[in-house]
Design brief:
Length: 328
């Protein structure tokens, strides 16, 4: 972790109380002048930090926009090793793919406070105004593309765990949409909260890199998008950096479990959080033609959606799902 992020972590950890500059310098093994330079840089980034003689520094407020330092200061899992990004970009997935191609390590994280060309699944646009959390991660699992087929579901489950840790009720919509649920145990879906876009480069039997892009609707201060739900709906005032850090920790947990034990144990949790389980659905191709329909009966070990189509079980690996009895 960079020294600046360590300074920020200390300020955030103090929860508004003063942090003594001399103690912090000793703890980090730097001079007091170095600490004061980090404070100056943080102020330039939009952090409001007050300094009181004989007492120390305290954090008054953080910038609204998602910045890499803030995420690095809040994230706990050691999988995440490098943090990049800025207030706005075209698409964090594009940035992450460039870094992956040039050899950036697993655990690299790209964040942005807004995107001008955010991309969603199936060639759709992902509207990305400021106030959301937009991030992409680089993963390099030592497995074949076939073995990694359940990864989109693993990432979605990680996002759901992260958002739950903040106090949101989440539901999963196959393969990797995260919806806001009405409450504990309820399958009433209030709107789409987050989406995941995975892109990959591989040889026939080896994954080279996977970029997973995650968009979370955090604040509706700049206006609501029809059909969307927001973290703000259930956890008012949650900062995009806190959302990004929670999501990253959730993903790291699920990814670690997937790499060591496969999708088996995670599949059960995925199904228990699914808003589609036991419901009648239609799965469509990109052009709208119906691929399959039936009653959802879980997912298999490869992450395929299992449907009871009346005359036997079908396993579907791609497509767009709609509930036959609702608008989701
Ligand atoms: C979907 O639900 O269709 C997936 C949406 C994925 C959006 C995220 S935002 C961060 C990353 N950058 C992009 O351009 N897309 C993903």
């Amino acid at each position: 972790m960079s020294r600046r992020s360590q300074v920020l972590r200390a300020l955030i950890g103090a929860e508004g109380a003063a942090v003594c500059g001399e103690d912090l310098a000793a703890e980090l093994g730097v001079t007091r002048v170095a600490v004061s330079k980090h404070m100056a840089t943080l102020r330039e980034l939009g952090y409001v930090i007050e300094a009181t003689p004989h007492t120390g520094y305290h954090l008054v407020s953080s910038p609204e926009l998602l910045l890499p330092d803030a995420v690095e200061a809040l994230v706990r899992d050691p999988l995440w090793v490098r943090f990049e990004g800025g207030p706005s970009t075209v698409s964090t997935n594009d940035d992450a793919k460039r870094l992956a191609r040039s050899g950036a390590p697993e655990g690299t994280v790209l964040v942005a406070g807004a995107q001008t060309g955010g991309r969603g699944r199936l060639g759709r646009e992902w509207v990305s105004p400021s106030g959301g959390a937009y991030l992409s991660i680089i993963l390099r699992p030592n497995m074949s593309p076939a073995q990694s087929s359940a990864l989109p579901l693993v990432v979605a489950l990680g996002v759901a765990r992260g958002l739950e840790s903040l106090g949101c009720h989440t539901l999963l919509k196959w393969p990797n949409d995260i919806w806001l649920g009405a409450g504990p145990g309820s399958t009433d879906a209030l709107g789409k909260l987050s989406g995941v876009l995975l892109e990959m480069q591989s040889e026939i039997d080896r994954v080279e890199w996977i970029v997973a892009g995650i968009g979370v609707n955090v604040s509706f201060a700049t206006g609501r998008t029809p059909g969307a739900a927001y973290v703000d709906d259930q956890v008012p005032g949650c900062a995009p950096a806190a959302v990004a850090a929670a999501v990253l920790d959730g993903i790291a947990e699920c990814f670690g479990q997937f790499v060591s034990d496969g999708f088996g144990t995670l599949a059960e949790e995925y199904v228990s959080r699914s808003m589609l389980e036991g419901r009648e659905v239609t799965v469509r191709e990109l052009d709208g033609t119906v691929r399959a329909s039936g009653r959802v009966q879980g997912v298999d070990a490869d992450g395929r959606l299992l449907l009871d189509g009346g005359s036997g079980m079908l396993a579907v690996s791609t497509g767009d799902v709609t509930l036959r009895d609702a608008g989701a």
